[in-house]
Design brief:
alpha+beta, about 20% helix
């Protein structure tokens, strides 16, 4: 797809090899210093086994684009633009927790680095009356990279813990995480799950039905 190809072209250096087979897996970019770069634009779930195997012997950088600004572009059957509008939804690096739930423990592996590419994108949609009833028949055909605006590198569980608000109380719930970060309760629960699996926080009790967490001491 367009987004994957564009991020790969933006990221690759002249001396890199692309789409190379390594230890039985096809890897997006292989760098001379024995670094493997895997670009994943969607769910992390299919990568769990692949990354688990490759990190046993090599350094792997998982690159994940997140749109901080997105334009919805509707095209007709001929590919002509019907409309273009800015989406009210704005992504952030925090959104990675929604995907990281697939393998949060792997963040602690010394051979894995997670790099978040914050972007401006076009989301191209084409009408198909048999699909996408939630979008009234408009199906997402592809995502197109407009601009890379920032990079966030996560090299350790401690870096992942940096997403926690500094003004959290020593003991806290996911409701308090959601309130301070101004995110959904579901995303706050994903943050807590990943950080607990990465041994950044731990459950220390309950307050009613809510689990109470605290940071794990250094």
């Amino acid at each position: 797809k367009s987004l994957h190809a564009s991020v790969k072209a933006w990221y690759a250096r002249p001396q890199d090899s692309v789409e190379m087979k390594v230890d039985g897996y096809v890897v997006d970019i292989v760098r001379d210093d024995d670094l493997l770069v895997e670009i994943q634009t969607r769910s992390f779930a299919p990568l769990k086994r692949k990354l688990g195997d490759l990190t046993q012997t090599r350094s792997v950088r998982l690159v994940h684009p997140i749109p901080t600004e997105k334009w919805i572009v509707k095209v007709d059957d001929a590919g002509e633009v019907v409309s273009r509008r800015k989406s009210p939804k704005r992504g952030s690096a925090l959104d990675v927790f929604g995907e990281l739930v697939s393998f949060p423990e792997l963040v602690a592996h010394p051979n894995l680095t997670l790099e978040l590419v914050l972007t401006r994108e076009d989301e191209v949609r084409r009408f198909d009356g048999t699909k996408a009833w939630r979008r009234k028949g408009w199906v997402v055909e592809e995502r197109r990279l407009l601009e890379v605006v920032d990079l966030v590198v996560i090299e350790s569980p401690a870096a992942l813990g940096g997403f926690l608000p500094s003004d959290l109380q020593p003991e806290f719930t996911t409701a308090e995480i959601a309130g301070i970060l101004r995110c959904s309760r579901r995303l706050a629960q994903q943050v807590a799950y990943c950080l607990r699996k990465a041994d950044v926080i731990e459950s220390v009790g309950k307050s009613g039905n809510a689990i109470v967490y605290a940071r794990v001491s250094d």
